Amino acid sequence: MINTKSNLKQKYKHIKAILTDVDGVLTDGGMYYSEKGETLKKFNTRDGMAVELLRYHNIPVIFITKEKSKIVLSRGKKLKINDVYIGITKKESLLPKICKKYDLKKNNLAYIGDDINDLQIMKQVGFSATPNDGMEIIKKNSDYICKLKGGEGVLREITDLILDKK
Question: Which residues, in sequence order, are CB contacts of 120 under 8 Å at separation 6+?
């Protein structure tokens, strides 16, 4: 999807909440396992600062992941994120609930995703983005392709883009 700078600005200037996938966006997509199961995920501290900056501007961050990960719940708790949804296969099904809770419309939502299971929700929000290493189909359907790869501070890149216009 080709967007001019002015077209992009029109899309993200209305953003009042950011929804994001976790694996491949907030992490590099790697999953470390031991005989006890999932044990490690690497998150970028710049994304943690992004959450703080967004909170200061009253823009909630919402995690939505297909994985059933206690690590994601722990990261959400550490960052004081109120809405962390794990084990969600149809992410777009959460949109009515999120819109109602925050009294927003879909065009007030941004979504950051990297893979095919993010496509439907990305098509329904006001602004969509993907890491530089997102899957090709997601890049073709995103309003914005980040300069950074997943796990390198993608949420911070989007935060800076949006807050620069507020």
Answer: 90, 91, 92
Please name which of 46, 19, 12, 58 lies closest in space to residue 164, comparing C-alpha atoms: 12
Spatial separation of the C-alpha atoms in residues 43 and 48, rounded to whole Å: 9
CATH architecture of 5-163: 3-Layer(aba) Sandwich (3.40)
Q: Tell me what pLDDT residue 3 has.
A: 62
Q: Which residues contact 118 (CB under 8 A, 6 or more apart)?
A: 21, 91, 111, 130, 138
Domain ranges of the chain: 5-163
The per-residue pLDDT for range 114-164, each reduced to its tens digit, is 999 999 999 999 999 999 999 999 999 999 999 999 999 999 999 999 998
- Phi and psi (nearest 5°) for 20? -145, 145
Whether the model pTM is above 0.85: yes
